């Protein structure tokens, strides 16, 4: 990896850590940059997964105030997330590598749709929360939420772009709570999924350790930045960047 490529990966790690903490979808920044350095898609994916773990932890620490009083919720959803994340990681390495090349452009495209639709989703969540007085909802989210979180976590263990968007959508429709508190839980769960997938990959996959370290350091810084600005910064510009970079990633994968 050349010095300029290293700098690009480090910068992508900062951007991913920041975006993951605020809205999710940071993988759409780091993954195409890793591809541009010449890494194979699966190696890029597992290296990215491990590198983003410190960023998720950093973002969760930054949102520690919003996590107060949510221990039971995190324990319930965390167990489901760990199972789903491990299942997704197993699928990544058991399916043929050609399957990843075929599936990932589709997953990125779906993730971009979710990113674009996120403002409407957030508005719908706010309207539902405003009606909380007449619709108390299930205190634990119910079986539907657990099933949805299991599937979203499996997707996160397999690839992970827009995993945070899925989490916020599922929890927001199930819990009558402040979106910032839901976002704080999202950061913890994303960290658990990346962590369990990374532990599995350590034993069975090939990493690019230079990329791992650069993304880890960058995403840790980005997690703190995202936590500080997340309550004030409009995600519109970040969303536009995600869409542009995601489209570039799709083109890169299709032209490989």
UniProtKB/TrEMBL annotation:
Q: How does it sit in the membrane?
A: Multi-pass membrane protein
The answer to whether keyword Protein biosynthesis applies is no
Q: Which organism is it from?
A: Streptomyces flavotricini
Keywords assigned: Cell membrane, Membrane, Transmembrane, Transmembrane helix, Transport
Q: Which domain of life is it from?
A: Bacteria
Tell me the Pfam families matching this sequence: TauE
Main localisation, per the record? membrane
Where located? Cell membrane
**Name of protein:** Probable membrane transporter protein
**What family, per the record?**
Belongs to the 4-toluene sulfonate uptake permease (TSUP) (TC 2.A.102) family.
- Which InterPro entries has this protein been placed in? TM_pro_TauE-like, TSUP
Q: Mind telling me which residue stretches traverse the membrane in this protein?
A: 7-34, 46-63, 75-96, 102-123, 144-168, 188-217, 237-255
């Amino acid at each position: 990896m050349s010095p300029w490529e290293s700098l690009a990966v480090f910068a992508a790690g900062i951007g991913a850590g920041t975006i993951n903490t605020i809205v999710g979808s940071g993988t759409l920044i780091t993954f195409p940059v890793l591809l541009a350095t010449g890494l194979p898609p699966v190696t890029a994916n597992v290296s990215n997964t491990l590198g983003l773990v410190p960023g998720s932890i950093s973002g969760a620490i930054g949102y520690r105030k919003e996590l107060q009083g949510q221990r039971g919720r995190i324990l319930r959803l965390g167990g489901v997330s760990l199972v789903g994340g491990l299942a997704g990681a197993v699928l990544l390495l058991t399916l043929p590598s050609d399957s990843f090349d075929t599936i990932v452009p589709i997953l990125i495209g779906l993730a971009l749709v979710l990113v674009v639709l996120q403002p409407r989703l957030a508005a719908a969540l706010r309207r539902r929360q405003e009606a909380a007085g007449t619709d108390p909802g299930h205190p634990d989210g119910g079986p539907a939420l657990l099933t949805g979180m299991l599937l979203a976590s499996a997707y996160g263990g397999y690839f992970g772009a827009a995993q945070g968007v899925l989490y916020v959508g599922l929890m927001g429709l199930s819990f009558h709570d402040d979106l910032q508190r839901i976002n704080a839980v999202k950061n913890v769960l994303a960290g658990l999924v990346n962590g369990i997938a990374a532990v599995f990959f350590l034993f069975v996959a090939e990493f690019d350790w230079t990329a791992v370290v650069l993304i880890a350091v960058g995403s840790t810084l980005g997690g703190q930045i995202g936590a500080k600005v997340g309550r004030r910064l409009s995600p519109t510009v970040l969303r536009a960047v995600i869409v542009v970079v995601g489209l570039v990633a799709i083109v890169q994968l299709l032209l490989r």
